[in-house]
Amino acid sequence: MDKLIIRGGNRLSGTIPISGAKNAALTLIPCALLTEEPVTLRNLPRLADIDGFQHLMGQFGVAHTIQGQRPEDFGRVVTLEATRLTGTVAPYELVRKMRASILVLGPMLARMGEATVSLPGGCAIGNRPIDLHLKALEAFGAHIELAQGYVKASAPDGGLPGGDFDFPIVSVGATENALMAAVLCNGTSRLINAAREPEIVDLCRLLTAMGAEIEGIGTSELTIHGAKRLHGATYRVMPDRIEAGSYACAAAITGGDVRLEGAEAEDMGSTLHALRNIGVEIESDKKGIDVRANGPLKAHNLTTAPFPGLATDMQAQLMSLLTRAEGTSVLKETIFENRFMHVPELARMGADIETEGRTAIVRGPVNLTGAEVMATDLRASMSLVIAGLAAEGETTVRRLYHLDRGYERLEEKLQLVGADIERVGDD
Ligand code: EPZ
Fold this sequence. Notes:
By secondary structure, the chain is α/β, with parallel strands linked by helices. It has 14 helices and 24 strands. Strands 22-23-1-24 form a 4-stranded mixed beta sheet, with helices on one face. A 4-stranded mixed beta sheet has the order 2-15-17-16. Helix 1 packs parallel to helix 7, helix 8 (241-253) runs parallel beside helix 12 (378-390) and helix 10 packs parallel to helix 12. Bound molecules: ligand EPZ.
């Protein structure tokens, strides 16, 4: 396994190209199941999770071709063809490695009338149930059975009738699965209290490009008029708002001046608002966002919430930044039950953080010192990299497979703006 060695203290300066959004790509890829025609996705990030998903799609007989890509390019163009599906089972050994595999359930059920997907199980940040995915599909007329650790879903002979579902809590994945089933239902379906994350809007845009009829895109109430069939499309994945927010924190903690090329400010409202309150200068234009931090950082209270609230995926990264801010910041994590795994590791670098349930109290500024740290989940790992960039001395981050799931060529992007960071084999 590889590890990252970071020697902190360099002020980051220059331009970082932002890749396509992992959490959009993971719901756009299974859309290929909804049609026999080719679906081409541009700006697909080169990430372990994306490769894993394409491997899963191959299990069903979905062909994928990667179009012309030079090694130095970020992202790739992939065409997926689900002309004839040879299987409808997503096996445990694949689903357990990547829980987003559950997103094949809705489209596979809608296209084939049946789908069998291993229950994804929990992960480091929480037990991550899928009850809302299943309740939404049942509301559309699906029969759901749980047996031997698998979800077996089936539709009536004439196909899913469709129906209404009111989400008791906002769920990004359940909204995505429901949308990808509703587009091929016989009737009209309504999703109430649907997630409004930009990745949902990206999904609605691809589905519309494929011929789906969706009203209320971007709002929490979606009406979907089922279609008999959908056709192929070519679509460009939106920029990754969490990757961009992560590099904004990296720039800020080093007192840097970095341009996030391709980042979309309107997807990042709450993150940019938090950074401005912490004292970071943010300017945006149609092509990207400029992040400048040349004054003292100020403590600021943060509470995560469904979009347009502060993204839970930004909590760990902002916490690292706040260890360097003057004053006490209170961070509340309202989405997942165990998303403070980065705290003990940050403490080993000198951070002064107290946690009580889903609340963390960060006192600053502290002088961070380099240490050997362990990545535990994707965003926690990034928070350790951010801290390492500002720490005195050397930080070694192990278990990089967590990072490689969500950050395309992280060390190369940070080297572009002057970070002293290298990836080495872990002896
Ligand atoms: C998506 O996960 C993202 N993953 C997560 O990003 C992100 O943190 C999360 O949305 C929230 O924004 C992908 O898009 C691949 P949820 P998802 O369903 O869909 C509970 C990252 O770092 N819930 O919105 O799994 C759930 O336990 C990852 O990139 C149910 O109770 O999140 C959680 O407490 C981490 N029942 C809350 O809802 C369900 O059926 C929100 O989960 C589904 C969810």
